[in-house]
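Need residues for this backbone.
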């Protein structure tokens, strides 16, 4: 049953959501949270690595986590645990019925949007670099999946989704290059090819 004080909980930013989730999974120190973000969630969700420690302090001040000294190797470290309010805040976000944000920061795609000022050969090179970036990411994901890095089935599913997206994007880049070779798309000229249909390249649905 939800805590009656749930409505008074502070709003969670992107970094707070990841940090609370990581602590709930057992990553209780700042350095272990950073390592797990690098290994997993940064593949599909942007969280500020440099903002982890300030966020931990903010969450502690808000009463969502508690910290205790956890000295190791002579260094002063802190181990964090969720408070009841922290569990409530994480649960409220996980169970939120509003439409989740589907955001993408894809610099290569942004460059392609404005590539009408480039020559055809430069446009094709841009698409080629975009394809290489997705190939690199797909190769990394396949290696991690093949090495069994993800014991949690839900964690593995999220990485499989990321792999499927990158594999689809590789096919899309091939189609885009073929279209560019067939028609020169310049600034102010609408494409005669119509709206691209992602499903033709096997896009995940």
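Answer:
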């Amino acid at each position: 049953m939800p805590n009656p004080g749930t409505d008074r909980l502070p709003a969670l930013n992107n970094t707070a959501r990841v940090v609370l989730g990581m602590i709930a999974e057992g990553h209780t120190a700042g350095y272990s949270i950073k390592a797990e973000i690098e290994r997993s969630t940064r593949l599909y969700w942007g969280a500020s690595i440099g903002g982890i420690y300030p966020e931990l302090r903010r969450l502690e001040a808000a009463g969502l986590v508690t910290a205790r000294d956890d000295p190791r190797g002579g260094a002063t470290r802190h181990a964090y645990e969720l408070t009841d309010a922290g569990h409530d805040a994480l649960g409220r976000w996980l169970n939120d019925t509003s439409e989740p944000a589907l955001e993408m920061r894809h610099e290569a795609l942004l460059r392609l949007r404005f590539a009408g000022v480039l020559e055809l050969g430069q446009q094709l090179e841009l698409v080629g670099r975009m394809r290489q970036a997705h190939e690199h990411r797909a190769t990394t994901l396949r290696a991690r999946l093949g090495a069994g890095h993800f014991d949690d089935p839900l964690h593995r599913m999220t990485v499989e989704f990321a792999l499927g997206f990158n594999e689809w994007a590789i096919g899309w880049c091939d189609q885009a290059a073929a279209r560019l070779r067939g028609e020169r798309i310049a600034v102010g000229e609408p494409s005669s090819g119509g709206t691209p249909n992602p499903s033709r390249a096997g896009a995940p649905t």
